[in-house]
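#struct-help
A.M.: can someone run this one for me? Single chain, 254 residues.
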Amino acid sequence: MKIALRDYFIQTVCVVLGALAAHSAFAADVVVSAAASLSNSFGDLGKAYETKHPGDRVVLNFAASDVLLKQIEQGAPADVFASADEITMDRAAQSELIDPSTRKDFASNTLVLIVGNGVKAPASLQDLAGSGYTHIAIGNPDSVPAGRYAKEALDAAKLWDKLQTQIIPTQNVRQALDYVARGEAQAGFVYATDAETQKGKVHVAMIISTSTPVRYPISVIAASAHPELARGFADFIVSAEGQAVLKRYGFGAP
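D.P.: on it. Structure tokens below:
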């Protein structure tokens, strides 16, 4: 009887250890480098993906799209890249850093001009040249897609050069949002989805027309350590469930 119990115990332990080993063999971290404007939505998307794939973990890395691309170029671990513009993803493709067969647009957005509490909203972009707007937060156009969109609009209005002494370049679009929310800048250019996260502290003064549509592409990194898992996460983002989360955060269809 004691031998039987001992054998049963050993067999049970082996089954448990085998299950744990199998779990470890298949579970993995999916490292997702995503544009700063996706911080809130991808936080929820990561949790939803983990719920559907027990044992897998989504590790999120947020920054300006160009900064993320530079990290990937320098060998930083990444499985998925989600950019806030097509230009940055095009550069990733030209450098053969992504698997082009996995590239797909998954969301769209709108550029807006915001002002802080107590700041009079400009009636037009031309009003930004007035004395009431000494600090205007804009993502650095050299590295931030939202900054490039803003510069495009200000160039079209012949204001970019005029506003140089008033412009505060930021490291990403969320920093521009924070400057306005904290009252360190009277106005700023961000995405409509960003403005929504600070509702009550910032107000949308106007929607900014851009000749280049604001679209977000996603791709699997060519050097991904887990290409199948990475593809699964990218597919989840464009699935009906993923799109519903993005819509909840104010993103438009791709």
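A.M.: thanks! The beta strands are 29-35, 57-63, 80-82, 104-109, 111-116, 136-139, 167-170, 187-191, 202-208, 214-220.
D.P.: also worth noting: Residues 46 and 58 are 6 Å apart (CA to CA).
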